Amino acid sequence: MAVGKSVQRKDGVAKVTGKARYTDDFSMPGMRVAKYLRSPIAHGRVVRIDTTRAEKLPGVDGVFTFHDVPKNTFATAGHPFSLDPEHGDVADRLLLTDCARFQGDEVAVVVTRDDMTAHKALSLIEVEYENLKPLIRMQDVLAHDAPELHKRSRNLIKEHAYTVGGDYKKAIEESDHLIEGVFETQIVQHCHLENHSSYAYMDDMDRIVIVSSTQIPHIARRIVSEALNFPLSRIRVIKPHIGGGFGNKQDVILEPMVAFLTLKLGGIPIRLKLNREECMVGTRVRHPLHIQVKAGISQEGNLNVIDYDAVSNTGAYASHGHSIVSAAAAKTHYMYPRAIYRCRARTIYGNFPSAGAMRGYGSPQIIFAVESLMEDAARKLGIDSVDFRLKNAVKPGDINQIGKRPIVTAGLIECIEKGRDLIDWDKKRATLQTPQTGPVRKGLGIACFSYLSGTYPSCVEPASARLILNQDGSVNLLVGATEIGQGSDTVFAQMTAETLGTSYEKVHVVSNQDTDVTPFDSGAYASRQTYVTGQAVMRAASELKDKILAYAGVITGMNPGELDIDEGNIVIAKSRQTAVMSLKDLSMDAYYNKNRGGQITSEVSCKALTNAPSYGCTVVDLEIDIPMCKVKINEIYNIHDAGVIINPLTSEGQIHGGMAMGIGAALFEVLMVDPDSGRIYNNNMLDYKVPTIMDIPGLGSGFVQTHEPTHPYGSKSLGEPPVLTPAPAIRNAILDATGIAINELPMNPKTLFTHFKNAGLL
Amino acid sequence: MFDFESYHKAESVDEAIALLAQNPKSIPLAGGTDVLVRLHQHHQDYRHVVDIHGLKELKEISKNPNGVIRIGSGVTFTTLTEHPLITGNIPVLAQGASSVGGPQVRNVGTVGGNICNGAPSADSAAPLLILNATVVLKGTQGQREIPLHEFYQGPGKVDRMESEILTSIVIAPENYQCWFAKYHKYAMRDAMDIATIGCAGACNIEGGLVNQLRLAYTVAGPTPLRCWKTEQIAKGAKADESLLELVKSSVLKDLRPRDSWRASKDFRQHVIQTLAQRVLQAILNQCGEVKP
Q: What residues pair up with A467 in beta bridges, in sequence order?
C-alpha cells in the first residue's frame, strides 16, 4: 500500500544535492542572450525609437522593436483553449509594444553574445515617449475622461453579476442585522526562487524547440503558435525541473519571444532570462481587489445573505483577467451555501504590472473580505467566532446554489472543531479580558475557506498518463501534468504503485515534460493535478495491470482473473504468498519471446467531469505590541479537509509553505506603486518584504480526512488552499486583541501605526 | 558579469593606498556587500576597483593592557558577533553586527566598509557612536585619527580622502567600562532588512542618578546621529522610569527623520520615541536600577 504513506519525494535527493537540472543549467554552443528594453514610465506612447547605434555595437546579433513583431494580439493566460469564444481570454498583447502601459513594459529586445553587451546595447537605443496620465487608482481608471489603456476597452475587461439561493430582497428584509464592510487588498508577487527563464533554438529548418520554466508546457505550445502564427505541430516545448511557480508560470511570458527571436535569427539558440528586478514587474502579480461586502444575519446568528461587489484590477494587460474574481466568487460560495449569495464583479485595467494567476486565484482576496465580515457579524451579535462559523458552515448534502449540485464531502465543521481544540480556543477565550489594556495585547482569530479541486465545469479538465512496463519489471510513468515543487510526481507514483500492486520505488516518473513525447495535460494550476490527473493515472495503472495479468495468463495458461500483482510479483489472488512469477520475468518474456508478447504499455487520456470542494480553516493566537506596531504569532494552525491524504509529509510541507505565504501577504508584503506616477518602488528583495525564516512562527497543521467519492483515492485539492486563510484569521485576532478592524492588507507596522494612531491607541 | 574598467588586488594596505592614489576614480572593495550591488547595477562611479578584501593586517581585534580596543576595518560582522573581546567588553557592537543582513552577508561584510559606505542605516554605526569610537585612516599623507561622528559628513559622504584606507576603529576603556549599553534595530522583518530606525543607548549610572547618557540613531537623519541635547538634559537625572519620559520628550529635537516611501516621517518619529524608551528600559534592567 503506497497511498497514505509519507514516502520520500521522487525528486528530493536530486534537488538537495544539486543534481536536478533547471532551465538555466542547460547551455548550447553559440548560445546568445536576449534582453528587454523596458519602459521607464508607466504610461506613454513611443514617438521615436532609434536602434542604429545599438545595432552597430560589436557582439549584437539583432535589435527588434514594435515594428518587427507580428501585429496579431494574443492572450497569455495559461488556460486550456475555450471552444466557446465568449469564454476565451482577452487577446491584448503583442511581443513588443509602442505604448508603455506599466513601468517596465517591453519596448525593444536585443540579442547579443553576452549579458554585458546586451546591457550596453540597450543603453544605445534611443526612445522618445509622449507621456500619458498613469491610471492607478480605481476612480482614475473608471473616470469618464480617462484615456483608454487598450482601444475600445473603456478600461473594463469584463463584469458579471448573479444572485443565487432564493429571494434576495426577502432575505434582507428578514435579517435582523445588516453588516457591511469595505476591504482593500494589495499587490503581491509570487517570489518563486527560480526567476522566469526560457531558451529556444531550431533543430532543423522548420521546428522550434523551447526549453522553459513553465507550469503549462502543452498550453505554452499553443499560445506560442497563436502569437507567432506558426504551426503548433512545429513547436516543441520542454519543461525541466522548476524552482517554483505559484501561478506565475501558468502564463506564457517569455516563450513567444524566444521562439520569435530564434526564428528571426536563423535558429540560433537564444536565452531570455529575467533577473529578480525584472521578474517582479515584468511577469505577473496578484490582483489587488476593492471589495464591498454585506451580510444579512438573524438575531440567532443565521447567515441569510452574503452580498458583495468586487472590483479587481488586472493592471496593464488582461492576462487571466476576469477569470480571477469570477473563479474566486464561485469557489467561496461552497463555505456557507445555505445563505443567499449575490455577487457583482468587475475587472479593470491599470498602469501597473499585469496581474495573473497566483496561488489561490482571487480567493485569498475574497476570503479576506468575507471572513473578516463574518467576524464583525459574530462580534455584533455577541456570538463566539467559532460558534458562529459552526452554525453556518457547510454540511454534507447542502446544495451548491450556483451549479445546483449537492455537496458530497464537507469536513469544514470538523476542521473548525479540530482547530478550536488544537489551539485550546475555549480555555484561552475564557481567560482573555475584554477590553484589554496595556501595551501588549493578546488575540484569537479564526477564518474558514472553501475551494475547488480543478476548474470544471468552467473549463475543460483534460489529463493523460502513459505507463510502460520496463524490462526489469519496474514501470515508467509519463504525465503531461507538471511537477513544479508541489510533489505531484511523488503522489502520481504512489497512486500507480497502489493500483498496480508494485512498490513505490519501482515506479519511475519521467519528470521533464516534452510536448513531443509526454501525453496531453493542461498543467499545474487550480490545485487540479492530484484530483484530475490522479484519475488518469489510476485508470492507466488499472489498464496496465489488466494487460500484465492477461499476459501472465498467456504465459502460464492460468485464468488472469485468478491472478493479482503483489510487491512486484504475479501471485494467486486467493493465496497471495504464492508467487507465480516476478514482473521482471514476465516483462522479459513480453519483450523478447520470439513468438508472443510485445512491450506492455497503457495510455489513458480522459477528462474530469466532476469537481470536489475542499475546506479548512486557520486558527491563530497572537499578541500585539502596540507602541512597536508589531504582531507576534504565538501559535497558528491550518486544518484541511483535502479528502484522503496521499502523502502526509509532503502535504504538511505544502501547508507550511502556503501558511508562510499567507502570513507574508497578511503582515509583510506589498509591491508599492506610486498612485500618481505609476513608479514601482520596491521590485527587489530588500524592499519587498517577503518574510524570512526569522519572521515565520512555528506552523501547525491538521487534517480531517473525508473520502471524496469522485476521486479514485478519495482525494481533494491541497495545493493552493493553505494560503487562503492566514490573513483573515490574523486580521480577526488583531481585532480581538485591540478592538480595531483592519480592512486592508498588508497589516504591516506602517498600516498598524496609522490605525492605532487614528484609534487613539498611540 | 561586471563592467570593470580597472581592477587591482592589493597585497597590503600600503599598496592599496598607492593604487588609490594613482587612480582617483577607484573605489576600495572590502567585503563587497555594498560595492558588488553597485557593480551589479552597472553604476558609473564603480568602474575602478582596488580590492582590499582579506588583507590580514585589517583583520585583527586586540585589546592593549590599558583596555584600548582596536578593531581592524576588515573584520567581518560574523567575527564582531562572535569574538570574545567584543562580546565580553562591548556586546552592544555585537548586537549591531548580528542584525546585519543574513549569515552570508555577515560572513563577508566588514565593519570598515559599513562605516565608509556612509549609509544613514549602517548597523554598526549607532553602537560605535555611543562607544565614542574613533577611526584611523591611512593615506599618502600619513595617518590620522578622528572621532566617528566627525567622520560622517552627509548621506553617503564620509571624510575619507581618495587615497585613504580606514584601517581600524578604536574604542577607549573609559567609553565602555562602567557603561551599560543596548542596540535595537527596528525593521520590517527580523533578518535581511535595512533598519527603519536603529537606536543604541548607553548609560553610566552612579547612586541612582545618570552620570552620563549616550544615545545614537540610524535612519533618523542624513547620517547616523548622536543625540547631544538629550544627553545633556539627562545628565544627573534619576535613573528610573522618569528618565524614559524625559528622553522621549527630548529626543526628536536631536534628529531629522525624513518622509520617504519606505516610511513616513511621523511613523519614524513614533519609532524613535518608542525605541528610546525600550532601549533605556533594557539598559536600566541591565544595571538593576529598575526591575522589569
A: A477, A602
Q: What is the CA radius of gyration of chain A?
A: 27
B168 Cα to chain A: minimum distance (Å):
29
**Cβ contacts of residue A19 below 8 Å, gap of 6+?**
A13
User: Are residues A437 and A305 part of one domain?
Assistant: yes
The answer to whether residues A468 and A386 belong to one domain is no
Query: Nearest CB to B261: which of A627, A672, A762?
Result: A672
A chain contacts of residue B186, beta-carbon cutoff 8 Å: 628
CA distance B188 to chain A (A): 7
Cell readout for A525 is: 494550476
**Contact A465/A513 with Cβ under 8 angstroms?**
no
Q: Does B42 touch chain A (CB under 8 A)?
A: yes
pLDDT number for residue A747: 98
Give the domain-ending residue among A557, A575, A607. Answer: A607
Look at residue A655 and give its three-state secondary structure.
helix
Quick one: B93 and B17 in the same domain? no
* pTM of the complete model beyond 0.95: yes
Contact A248, A357 (CB under 8 A): yes
User: From its phi and psi, is residue B249 left (phi > 0), alpha (psi between -120 and 50) or beta?
Assistant: alpha
Angle value at C-alpha B247, between B241 and B252, nearest 5 degrees: 150
If you count them, how many residues does chain B have? 292
| A–B CB contacts, 8 A cutoff, strictly below | 55
- Cβ-proximal residues to A690 (8 Å cutoff; 6+ apart), any chain: A191, A664, A668, A669
Distance between the two ends of chain B, CA-based, in angstroms? 54
ipTM of the complex: 0.96
**Cα A213 versus chain centre, distance:** 15
Q: How far apart are CA A740 and CA A479, in angstroms?
A: 50
Domain count, chain B: 3
Average confidence (pLDDT) over A520-532: 98
List of chain A residues whose C-beta atoms are within 8 Å of the C-beta of residue B277: 627
Torsion (CA) A732, A735, A741, A747 in degrees, nearest 10: -70
What is the band of A500 on the pLDDT scale with cuts at 50, 70, 90? Answer: very high
Q: Which of A37-41, A342-346, A577-581 has the least mean pLDDT?
A: A577-581
Is B128 part of any domain?
yes
**B66/B123 same-domain check:** yes
Answer yes or no: is A186 within a domain: no
Residue A626 shares a structural domain with residue A749: yes
Task: Show the beta-strand stretches assigned E in A407-555.
Answer: 440-451, 462-469, 475-479, 507-510, 513-514
Same structural domain, A580 and A632: no
pLDDT of residue A578: 83
Residue A339: what pLDDT?
Answer: 97
A439 → chain B, closest CA residue: B274
CA–CA min distance A586, chain B (Å): 55
Contact A297, A303 (CB under 8 A): yes
Query: Exposed, middle or buried by CB within 10 Å (0-12, 13-18, 19+), for A623?
Result: middle
Nearest-by-CA chain A residue for B274:
A627
Three cell numbers at A266?
Answer: 536563423
Does A695 contact B274 at a Cβ distance shorter than 8 Å? Answer: no
- Shortest Cα–Cα distance, B274 to chain A (Å): 6
Closest CA to A192 of A243, A254, A255: A243
Q: What is the pLDDT of residue B292?
A: 37
**Identity of the residue in B42, B102, B189 whose CB atom sits nearest the CB atom of A691:** B189
One-letter identity of residue A704: V
Q: Do B132 and B214 reside in the same domain of the chain?
A: no
Residues of the domain holding A650: 289-456+610-758
Distance in Å from the first CA to the final CA of chain A: 59
Q: What is the pLDDT of residues A134-185, one digit of tens each?
A: 999 999 999 999 999 999 999 999 999 999 999 999 999 999 999 999 999 9
CB-side exposure of A726: number of CA atoms within 13 Å?
A: 32
- Indicate if A551 and A647 belong to the same structural domain: no
